[in-house]
Amino acid sequence: xCCEEAGENTVNLRCYHRPLRSTRLLLHGERMSRGRxxxxxxxxxxxxxxxxxxxxxxxxxxxxxxxxxxxxxLAELEALLDALxxxxxxxxxxxxxxxxxxxxxxxxxNCGALGWVxxxxxYRYTLTDPQSGQPWPALPPVLLGxxxxxxxxxxxxxxxxxxCLVNHYLPGxxxxxxxxxxxQDFSQPIVSISLGLPAVxxxxxxxxxxxTQRVPLSxxxxxxxxxEDRLRFHGVLPIKPGVHPRMGERRINxxxxxxx
Length: 260
Known about the structure:
Layout: H1 45-55, E1 60-63, E2 66-69, H2 77-90, E3 107-112, E4 115-119, E5 122-126, H3 141-153, E6 163-169, E7 175-178, E8 190-196, E9 199-203, E10 213-217, E11 222-225, E12 234-236, E13 251-257
Antiparallel strand pairs: 1-2, 2-11, 3-6, 4-5, 6-13, 7-12, 8-11, 8-13, 9-10, 9-12
């Protein structure tokens, strides 16, 4: 993913490597072995630049504490999809309603100790799935590890999320500008993983009226924001029609937070 005004791409960012991959796109039902993701300690800027040039797209700083990691989730893709299947069986996607009674176009579900819900009582996190009355499915270790590593690369150490909101977008659906304010701890970052159809993420300011930056998101991209950017308004433009070779006519977004 690139940004209209990417700014400095490598300063104060930790490097990450993606394994070299075949250019052949995976079709539905096909599998691939997971590659290894290496992590290296921060070094001289020239060394980081050299390594990133060799191993693919580099982190992009979109704002002071907002970092895009292009393709960061691709090495874990098959393990991630395998881990999500039992989550979706236990807690299927559903369309919730806003406190004002409006139908939400984007279907969603949750995994983790806490799950985000919306109904006539407001926006909040709950320990149990209101549909089943059971605890939300546990956060898969592969997802937990991926979020922790992405946060560390972006400069947020020791991130351990307890909630993952899973959004299911179809062509034409969008997400209006909003702030994530239902969590108890704003000191922790937000880690957002994009799978499937491309999207345009709107990164705004601390006021709804602030100018937004349009950030294209591709399959496997991970976006991390926190610190003074934690309460920025953000949203997603309507998803354009298309068929992703691995995910079909959909975009799946996994957003991990420390909610409790």
